[in-house]
Design brief:
The chain is 41% helix and 16% strand. The protein is an alpha+beta fold. The strands form two sheets. Strands 5, 6, 7, 8, 9, 10 and 11 form a seven-stranded mixed β-sheet that branches. It has a four-stranded antiparallel β-sheet with strand order 1-2-4-3. α5 packs across α6. The radius of gyration is 24 Å and the shape is globular. The chain starts with a strand and ends in a 35-residue tail after the last helix. The mean pLDDT is 93.
Amino acid sequence: MIKVSLIANTNEAPVNLISHAARTCYTSKVPEMGNVLDVENSLFRTGHHTTLQHNYFSFNIDGLSVSSATFGLHLTHPFYNSDQRSGRYSKMYSKPDFEEIRSYILKYWKIENIDEVISFIKKGTEIYKNNIDKATEVAKKLIKEERPFVNEENLEKLAPKIAQEQLRTFISTIAPTGLDITLNLSAITAMWRSAWNAELIEITNQMRDIIIEKYPDLTYMFDEKTRRVDTWAPNVDFTHIGILKEPKGYSAKFSIWSLETKLDEKNKDAVDLRYFTPEQMDNSVSNIICEVELSIASYGQDQRHRTIKRGTPQITGNFYLPPILQELNLESEAFELMKEYFELSKKIDKTLAIAIAPYGVMVRYKKLADLNAFLHEQEKRLCWSAQEEIYNLNRQLHDLLVTKDLKKIADLMCPACYKTCCIEGARYCGRDLSKLKTDKSIPVRKI
């Protein structure tokens, strides 16, 4: 079950730090720490909430589902930092505990056909289990083809990892995970009030309880009368079932303020200075908006870029079949699993339907990025250390820039190996970098 524990917080009582911040605005000298204001009435209820944002709380959340992170904690607001357990360390792959999953579902949803739901989850896990060894061998073959300079040690590490990444499309996102998340006080309050499904309600209730136990004077921030009472889940397009063999970048529009604003930088290392230099401020008012469709697995990866805005996701009816699964001829298994998912989704609560969705179910949504954010994202996602699907999506966006006569930006969004040299160190992918001297195109990848 979900367990939230506080692992760190700002080393000053919230009321002291909030009061100090507020008094700083209206005094000619540094105020005394501990000279408190009526925070509730003079700051909180009047909307002066920047003062609340000096207090940070870091939580570890263990036992939550992957879907409750993707369609819950990480969905809407950018005011957080989190680091989530890799799927490689989920027992869902090696030793799935279906009784634990049954108990988890029954705790957060009222459901009569629980056996049917568990049977569906088991089906995806069985497909994974029956094909993981073959998928690993295919991964080794493709790695050798695409990355001729990979050493044997890295090959043995990469092949199982990549096979798992691609074959997990059959695994349900009800799979348990864990993460560390850091939030400021006003973000926690807003999350608690706006929680839209049972898991998010549970998580934010535990956050509230931890904070109130430690700081009972903040109880007024969590008034039950202010809380959302309805639930929400992404819309599901039940009109068709499809299998997609690549992600889709459907459209892209560019509003570029100036191409002369410091676009000729070279990466010296992994530190991104774009948001910290005044010369590049105009890049923050140049916008790129696009519409994309990709799997839930890569949607979770995409959410890691906090400075990019995303529209409401919709479940499209498509299932993503990665290259390894294509070579294993698993298209019919994917279609049948998707068909069963649709039939089951119509019979259960909408939030549970999202919670049990396989990783391969695809979502479509709009993205809006300023130029600084867009370039940062592309540098990371066009590196071969990024997963195949999200790489190939961003390759499509790169090519769209070229077709729209914005090659200068397209060239800049490439990773460091296109500009100077690889900065990944021991994580060097093993591809033939000598080809980049003559061919600047972004190739299609299978692994």
